[in-house]
Amino acid sequence: MNSLTEVRLTPGMKLCDLSVIVPIYNEEESIPHLCARLFGSLDVLGKTFEIICVDDGSSDGSLRELKKISDLRKELRVVAFRRNCGQTAAMMAGIDYSHGDIIVTIDADLQNDPDDISALLTKIDEGFDVVSGWRKDRQDAVIRRNLVSRIANRIISRISGVALHDYGCTLKAYRRDVIKDVRLYGEMHRFIPIYAAWMGARVYEMPVRHHPRKFGKSKYGLERIAKVVLDLMVVKFLDRYLVKPIYVFGGFGLLSLLISGFTCLLMIWLKFVEAVSMVQTPLPILAAMTFLVGVLSLLMGILAEMMVRTYFESSGRRSYSVRETINIKDI
Hints:
By secondary structure, the protein is an alpha/beta fold. The chain folds into 2 domains: 2-240, Spore Coat Polysaccharide Biosynthesis Protein SpsA, Chain A (Alpha-Beta Complex), CATH 3.90.550.10; 246-312. Helix content is 46%, strand content 13%. It is built from 10 helices and 8 strands. The chain has an 8-stranded mixed sheet. It starts with a strand and ends in a 16-residue tail after the last helix.
């Protein structure tokens, strides 16, 4: 991996106030304009900052452009992947390499406006833990992007219980302590506000500007919808059943066993009351299949319980999260 030298910090040591994370994939033409806009917006904030550009295996000259600018401004730090790993992986790498108290994420295609960063930080200063951008006047294709996005956002809000108008907007600001333990996979970077809200974070959404794309083309297609839905199912499962997976597997197992038992009773009733031979119906196969599925589901639930306990014990994690303590020493 090509990258600038990572600065190792000792506990309690702080490198900067603000980290801006920019995932990049084939944005060679946008990079000079993006960096100029970012530095122009950040230089006037009166805060120490770093810009972490994560090159997600670009096949154009994106990395070359980043290296040129990093020679001129040491606040620009570059992390380059060996191959394309996706936006979520790039976000995760940016968080891992960042050192700011506040973390801001922004797209590299110039559709997000860097001047909106100051407004996000103002809300963070007011006491919010997560400030999410809302592209209220979105400059994208009406049907293929906007309509589909609205439908997806409503579904996500309904399932998660965290009502946001625009989960897909990359422009967001976070306090480090609400996302430091979040691990991201798949397309889950858009669900960070959900994780944070479930952990008790104060989430605020505000309108931000959105500009038409000037260079290149969008990297997203309609196949992203299926990925988002599947990832949302995982997120919901982790929220409700991570600590007690037996409730899912065991519940389904018991339901299958009940169906199997009911099927057996139905077969007996048909045999002795209706004089219908069991082999003339699909009921024996149904009873056997549901019985096997029920037993296997119960066994999978027990196995999942053992894995969860191993996970928490081996990683040193607790099954709860504490916001603060008073007159209690760290344990």
